[in-house]
Structure of Fe2OG dioxygenase domain-containing protein:
Amino acid sequence: MDDARDATGGEGARGRCQKLAKALRGQLAKKAYDALRAHARAFQRREVTTSEFAKVLVECARTGGVTRATAREVIATTPSALDRRRLRECVGRDLDDDAAVKSTREREKKPHGFKTERLGPGLVCLRKFLSVEAQMWLASESFALGESGSDDAARGQGFFAKMGDGTFKLNQGSRGRMILEPDAFPDGILTQMCEDAVAAACAADAEMPTNMNPTTCLVNFYKDGAEFKWHKDSEDPKLVKSRTGPPIVSFSVGLSGDFGYKYSFDDPEHKVVRLNSGDVLLFGGPSRMIVHSVLNVYPGSMPGHLRGKMLNGRLNVTVRDIGCGVIDASQFPAYRVSYDGVQADGNV
Ligand SMILES: O=C(O)CCC(=O)C(=O)O
Ligand SMILES: [Fe+2]
């Protein structure tokens, strides 16, 4: 509540905490506010267990006058990703708004009718895994973040870079990128979508690691015709050799694109998988360090349900588990992660 930081440790996080403290002061009597603050501090010092603190929060929302949105914000601004995840597990659906429960259920409606393609060990494509509602949600939330972030002088972490003349352009030429925590998306929905995708991929592939804790996401927006050069996604050097790295979970929405992959930069041959709107690609374990590239984005392939609902282009959200990796936010829009001060292999 007091000293929460986001992945970038930037001004945005401080402002968010100040806003939260103001909301809590407005919703609680002074004594109750002080008690909640003391609890939050004790929880961060490990003097109060996760389930005790979760109970306090749910109770504040049930009888104490704290709105469920504010109680969720207390969790979202808790510094450790693991603590946030455990708190969410403890509170379950108790802090969901009725409307959010309904819309989450809509999105999660089973069966999605998705198809699973196992492309290699630890490499799985879930075809049409995202429902139409989930695709629309991911697009609208990503663009809301991409646009608001671009106009925030302190953070400057949206899809667009502001030019000297006040106009905006995509921060990587024909591609725009954001680096966020999954919690930047509301209500834990992206994390839930990611966990569902990992479960579905593990059911189809015994070599897909099950232990994936979403800590970071990279959001890319490609104009039609844009590409992404051949690269590997950064990984903890200790895991690179063990071939047990948790999967990258990659959601595609909007225009279709060709994803090329191979197992070594030197390999003259590569394979291609076409990623369409709603598909999810996972690469982990023996395939975690594949060399990959977006070879092209197909104009005119926008599905009808998204036409006019998102900028014409391809949106890709990769959700990652970077463990104890530290992102160097000063390098944005480049993505640089290091482990124990050593820059990870495969940075883009
Ligand atoms: O857009 C894609 O499908 C891949 C994106 C990617 O490789 C990355 O963000 O590292
Ligand atoms: Fe990548």
About this structure: Residues 54 and 92 are 10 Å apart (CA to CA). Residues 231, 233, 292 surround fe (ii) ion (ligand 2) (CB under 6 Å).
